[in-house]
């Protein structure tokens, strides 16, 4: 049975009683320790340091990007310390949805879960797009090949994820280490040949190219830097996914805080080296702003086209690491919401032998791939590439920022409403850190709306949210189940 007695009376929703077999069919297997969690967190993010961060360089220059990155680092430090506290107190697969469910009730939990759903499904799609971009450059194939690369990538890495959690984490560790090693090779190769003033500062006011470099540090002032906030987010986006592995971690109360904080500090150091050295060698910041493969462009200038392609095959592991880890994330995120009844329940059924959420993995992958295909074939290869690389990236960032607002608010409400809740780990930044994360996330959303490429995607996010809310209002809220996340929230609300 549910573990907390009869289904509770919660305004606006109804819980159904389920038997033990319901949860037996939705079991997970514990495997991960601190190192595996570190690899999952870093691996999920590392593609953002291979592609994506550079797309805003023309709208504020290198100095603008550095300032934006500093602001975003403050946001993520406040966020990850808040998440570390909440995840240790609520070690359930639901992650952000679980935190918001306890703090704000079923509707708050569902809206937060929907924000993360947009983030992870579309982030995987954008990373897959960059994988195709790298492969197209390596093999010199025409644009028409891109959908083939996407389909093959999804088939391979969804396949690895459904083969079992042990294999999934083992692959994550290996490709994350290879991705970090490839970046280290790039840093050591670029450093002796870097010319910061000549190449990194070759963007002038209004986004014009300065052929001889030595331009202003902030060519468009503070406003130009703030416009780059959504792109700086890409350097760290998805580190917050670690709590989704809570029920597959041996000691989540101890290991989740360690894993997410180690991962965050690793990524801060790596991000600063990437934006400094990648922009400080040819082709320079201006041309990097239009590149789908900035690390490959850097390798090409350092070693020539032939050897660069060999190195780019290795560099591709950075994108693969993130793609693989984010598939893991949306599989668990969909599984958790489905197990609790917010999404259709069949999506949470796990494989009887391997205990992997196969239906959730396949469902999320089909949605992401479908979005890419619709954009590509509706707009054509040239315009489709711009929208997938730009608008979908911004849509994923919007979903992330909305979830960060909800998680910051959840932390504050949990501290205020339930001060005596057991907290095995406490954030050293407390309410200040959560408030900073919430405020900077709102600021980033405000600047996203000033981006004309992003506005195209607003309708897509609105449709996504409308369909999700409609399903929950008509069906899901009448069929909730006391999953571990829901049972914990009910116990806290009852004060038991």
Automatic annotation (TrEMBL):
InterPro entries xref list: AA-permease/SLC12A_dom, APC_superfamily
Membrane topology: Multi-pass membrane protein
Domain Amino acid permease/ SLC12A: 51-472
Keywords: Membrane, Transmembrane, Transmembrane helix
Subcellular location: Membrane
Transmembrane segments: 31-50, 62-84, 120-139, 148-167, 173-191, 259-279, 310-330, 359-379, 391-416, 428-447, 453-474
Pfam families given in the database record: AA_permease
Predominant place of localization: membrane
Highest taxon listed in the record's lineage: Bacteria
PANTHER family per record: AMINO ACID TRANSPORTER-RELATED (PTHR42770), MEMBRANE PROTEIN (PTHR42770:SF7)
Protein name (Swiss-Prot/TrEMBL): Ethanolamine permease
């Amino acid at each position: 049975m549910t573990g907390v007695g009869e289904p509770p009376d919660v305004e606006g929703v109804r819980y159904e009683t389920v038997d033990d077999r319901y949860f037996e069919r939705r079991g997970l297997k514990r495997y991960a320790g601190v190192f595996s969690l570190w690899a999952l967190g870093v691996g999920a993010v590392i593609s953002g340091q291979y592609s994506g961060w550079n797309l805003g360089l023309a709208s504020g220059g290198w100095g603008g990007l550095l300032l934006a990155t500093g602001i975003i680092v403050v946001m993520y430090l406040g966020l990850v310390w808040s998440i570390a506290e909440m995840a240790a107190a609520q070690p359930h697969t639901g992650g952000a949805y679980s935190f918001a469910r306890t703090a704000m009730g079923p509707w708050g939990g569902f809206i937060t879960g929907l924000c993360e759903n947009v983030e992870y499904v579309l982030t995987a799609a954008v990373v897959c797009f960059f994988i195709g971009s790298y492969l197209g450059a390596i093999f010199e194939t025409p644009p028409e090949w891109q959908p083939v690369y996407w389909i093959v990538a999804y088939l391979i890495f969804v396949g690895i994820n459904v083969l079992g959690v042990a294999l999934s984490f083992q692959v994550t560790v290996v490709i994350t280490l290879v991705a970090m090693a490839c970046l280290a090779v790039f840093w050591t190769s670029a450093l002796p040949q870097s010319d910061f003033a000549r190449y990194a500062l070759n963007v002038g006011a209004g986004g014009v190219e300065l052929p001889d470099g030595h331009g202003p540090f902030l060519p468009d002032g503070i406003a130009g830097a703030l416009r780059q906030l959504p792109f700086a987010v890409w350097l760290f986006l998805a580190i917050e996914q670690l709590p989704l592995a809570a029920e597959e971690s041996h000691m989540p109360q101890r290991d989740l805080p360690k894993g997410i904080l180690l991962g965050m500090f690793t990524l801060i150091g790596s991000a600063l080296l990437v934006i400094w050295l990648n922009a400080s060698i040819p082709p320079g910041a201006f041309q990097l702003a239009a590149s789908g493969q900035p690390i490959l462009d850097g390798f090409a200038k350092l070693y020539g086209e032939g050897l660069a392609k060999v190195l780019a095959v290795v560099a591709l592991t950075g994108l693969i690491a993130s793609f693989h880890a984010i598939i893991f994330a949306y599989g668990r995120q969909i599984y958790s919401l489905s197990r609790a009844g917010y999404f259709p329940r069949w999506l949470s059924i796990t494989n009887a032998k391997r205990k992997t959420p196969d239906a959730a993995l396949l469902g999320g992958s089909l949605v992401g791939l479908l979005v890419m295909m619709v954009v590509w074939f509706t707009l054509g290869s040239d315009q489709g590439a711009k929208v997938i690389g730009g608008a979908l990236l911004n849509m994923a960032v919007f979903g992330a920022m909305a979830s960060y607002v909800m998680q910051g608010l959840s932390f504050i409400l949990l501290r205020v409403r339930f001060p005596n809740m057991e907290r095995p780990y406490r954030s050293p930044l407390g309410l200040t850190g959560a408030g900073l994360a919430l405020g900077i996330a709102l600021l980033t959303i405000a600047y996203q709306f000033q981006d004309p490429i992003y506005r195209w995607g607003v309708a897509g996010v609105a449709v996504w949210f409308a369909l999700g809310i409609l399903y929950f209002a008509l069906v899901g809220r009448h069929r909730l189940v006391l999953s571990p996340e829901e049972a914990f929230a009910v116990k806290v609300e009852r004060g038991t």
